[in-house]
Amino acid sequence: MDIEFWIFAAGIFGLIVGSFLNVVIHRLPKMMENEWAAQCAELRNEAVSEQPRYNLAVPRSACPGCGHQITAVENIPVLSWLILRGKCSACKTPISARYPLVEAANALLWVACVVHFGPGVPALGAMFFTSCLLVLALIDFDTTLLPDDITLPLLWAGLLLNLPGIYTGLGSAVVGAMAGYLSLWSIYWAFKLLTGKEGMGYGDFKLLAAMGAWLGWKMLPLLILLSSFVGALIGIALIILAKRGKDIPMPFGPYLAAAGVITLFWGESLNQLYLHL
After folding, report:
1. What is the spatial distance between Cα 218 and Cα 175, in angstroms, rounded to a whole number?
2. pLDDT tens digits, the chain, 277 residues: what are they?
3. Measured between alpha carbons, how far is 155 from 183 in angstroms, rounded to an integer?
């Protein structure tokens, strides 16, 4: 089949999966909070009241304003939001533009994976990698959490796919995972010993370890440099344009995720340019 077919298919399925990613972004942190509350109650020897089932499949998506359940026709990626003009069909409560933006972003990432790697296992793996990074970036932005339910499978998937050396050699992937974790862990403790404050969370260590497992240890300096650069630009923009206070902490995960996507597609070229300079 022609490459155009695979690009089209990647775009369509990227939109569909992007709709599911919106569910993960919204529900996974709430599922984690419910689990923590139950564990705390158990440690206090308190009776845990039975809660309604709440997971990625149940209950059905509904309008937070009136409780109207979203129908299949109202759940077509991007198109439904445009037809409804960004409002609930029942009560006209505004629907965040982030939902179609996430769907479109995931579709574009999947198309980029097919264009860059061509049809095959490398492109499929890159789709999984970029979708996980998209979810982690937005969850961290909303909650400052990087769920182990995503970061740890992402790490193991990187090692698995690099058994035959799809993105880097297995040795480089293993060292990348170890060095990725230890590099941010060292920075964390150095900052804490010097200032008495925590500069980042353990989820950041695991995320960089996962990226090291996918991309290899040689890409770690580039990942850290890019994430710091992106973070500095966005941080300055938020302070100047959004009047964000300098003392308000900003999650590092979104910047790591952005650096991971850039490195996946252009890491080799950027490394060569950096070494040449």
Report:
1. 9
2. 688 999 999 999 999 999 999 999 999 999 999 888 888 888 888 877 777 888 898 888 888 888 888 888 888 999 999 998 889 888 888 999 999 999 999 999 999 999 999 999 999 999 999 999 999 999 999 999 999 999 999 999 999 999 999 999 999 999 999 999 999 999 888 888 888 887 788 899 999 999 999 999 999 999 999 998 888 888 777 777 766 666 667 788 999 999 999 999 999 888 888 777 6
3. 16
The token pair at 256 is: 């790591």
> CA-to-CA distance for 90 and 67, rounded, in angstroms?
9
Looking at the DSSP assignment, which residues form a beta bridge with residue 87? 94
Distance (Å, rounded) from C-alpha 60 to C-alpha 58? Answer: 5
Q: How far apart are CA 212 and CA 175, in angstroms?
A: 8
